[in-house]
Amino acid sequence: MSMAIETHELSKRYRRVSALTHCTVTVPQGRVCALVGPNGAGKTTLLRMLAGMASPTSGTASVLGGAPRQDPAFLSEVGFLAQEIPLYRRFTGEDHIRIGTHLNQRWDAALARTRLAELRIPLHQPVGTLSGGQRAQVALALTLAKRPRLLLLDEPFAALDPLARQNFLATLTSAVADAAGRLTLVLSSHLVTDLERVCDHIILLAGSRVQIYGDIDTLLAEHKVLAGPNQDTGPIERTHQVVHTVTTGGRPTLLVRLSGPVTDPACQAEDVTLEDLVLAYMGAGEASAAKHLTTVGEDS
Amino acid sequence: MTWLVWRQYRTQGAIASVLLAAAAAVILVDGFQIASHWHSILVTCAGNGGCLSQQGPLVNGVVSDLPYLTLIVPVVLGMLWGAPLVAHELETRTSDFVWAQSVTRTRWLIVKTGWLLLAAGICGGALAALTTWWSGPINALSATAFDPGQFDTQGIVPIGYAVFAMALGIATGTVARRTLPAIAVVLGGFIAVRLLISNLLRPHYITAVTTYYHLTGSFTPPGQAWVLGQGGVSPTGVTVPQGWGSLGTVALGSCQKLLGVGPQTKGGSPAAILSCLQAHGWRGFATYQPADRYWPFQGIETGIYLLLAAALIAVTFAIVRRRDA
User: Fold this and answer.
1) What angle do CA B299, B304, B310 make, to 5 degrees?
2) With an 8 Å Cβ cutoff, are A86 and B97 in contact?
């Protein structure tokens, strides 16, 4: 299985602040990957480095087989949509489509026009006069018109109401289906619930570090919530990797990454949801980040 | 890429073209009037030089300020078009849209800066050509080719100023990443550079010529030369600027002493003092740039501004290529 994204110890510092620290992840081709983490975890930094918009302080990234770089061949393969949904406010949708025609060797203007017509978004009106949801749709249609092999979307849902969110997701899923495994998608969000329905891969960032990444089904199978019969969690900690512990009524509940079968018959093992998993790892990440903060003395 | 530049600047470009055309119309109409007036003066005076010098100014009122357009337009273009070129894209984050297309930032910048520098050069050149033509009779009547009012508004230097102002705007906007501060810096920076170069560098583009003459006589460099200094110089090299008053205070005293004339006699006529000084080795001197250096100076100054512009554009490219978007 070839990788659309492969990073090794990728780091980015802005003056004294670490935006991303030793990030090593892979995303196989054809996947829809959720990039999840709290605000300030480094999601935008990672996406911008993958898109070739920012350069790493250290470490390497390989995107579609090469380092992100300023060269038309690379740029034409990668679609990047920044969080601010950048468009020329005084230009119409049609203007943007024509800009794309002039600035890309491969450009599917018909695709953009068709999608926007289906959504009944006016093409001959300055995009500054459109609603936030319509603008996001215009920007997405333009990004898809590039026919990229890798699509990087930074917080695409931030500005959208639930209905617009649904339309946006529908556009995305149909694009992925149309591409038949040729398109890899990375979407960032601070809420995993936004992405749960469409994603099959996840990268979880917290405190500028990767907490966990991989195939969602595999990760869900590897993790269990264990509720022990007694307060002694020692045996569990010795056999499995404890991610997070919650104690309710004196009875500890542990979210663990299994390193083998659960042998203790008195122990109840329950399946985890993606949200449980994300929250557990985020909590772990936050804790380590807080520790990191007190030692370094970060200013931001 | 060119289409994007056209789309982004078509409105501003149309406004600028209309304004330029209007200015051109005014200059042309007024210029023909001046020319016919000048022609009638030439007929009336018919080779009588004294008659020419008695003519009043050829232009009066608002139109006499027309040459200042050549001074103002370049810096305005630098502020309104140059400063936002990169800064506004960064401010509105449209750089994230345009730099996410399949065109490298370098190519994007080459095409945008290329067209805008060309536009600035054309504006500066067109205004300079019109002003030069319009000023023909005025230039003939006055001997001021090197005066800032003439040298800076005619010939080819306005092209250099315009290209430099545009490059200054582009570079400042790129460094500042914000349009408004960049506009302020362009205005201040342009004026500062212009003053520095015209006052400190321009007199020395080519080593000035110094001519010595008999103190009792007089000397005027031929043609519309640029006189940098004139006065008296002692055998030991002490110079005194021209004008009887200042020449008097220093030289008068020394000659009185030399002549053994006491201060109480208040030493004779100016001519006698000058003869005395001449007799004791004083000479008159004039340091000047000859009239035939007008075009070399225009060329050198234009070259300096084009080189500065090239350096600013190089800085812009280095920043845009390297810095994270």
Assistant:
1) 120
2) yes
